[in-house]
Amino acid sequence: MPIISLSSFKGGVAKTTSAICLASLFCEDGTTLVIDADPNRSATTWAKPGGLPFQVCGEKEAAKLMRSQKFEYIIFVSPQNFGVGNYSGIQDQRNR
Fold first, then answer.
1. What one-character DSSP code corresponds to residue 27?
2. Fewest C-beta atoms under 10 Å: which of 14, 17, 79, 85?
3. What tens digit of pLDDT does each residue of 26-52 get?
4. Considering the entire predicted model, what is its pTM?
């Protein structure tokens, strides 16, 4: 299961838009999860009306969801200034 992370030190660089577009593409090949860790929660807002062919959740719900379901693709939308060391929790959940 690949984990694709979209991150930037700057806000407003189309991380969420890119995540939604990538998830739309990847879900044609397998189950896809978008983890919305950006404090603006834009991906979560896009998902609220429903109808998306993939799941979107916040980082707090991600661990439980990843344990209960198998995802072929995970797309992580990070907050600004998210460092490489912060990815270990996601990697740990993937390996369980």
1. T
2. 85
3. 999 999 999 999 888 999 998 988 889
4. 0.81
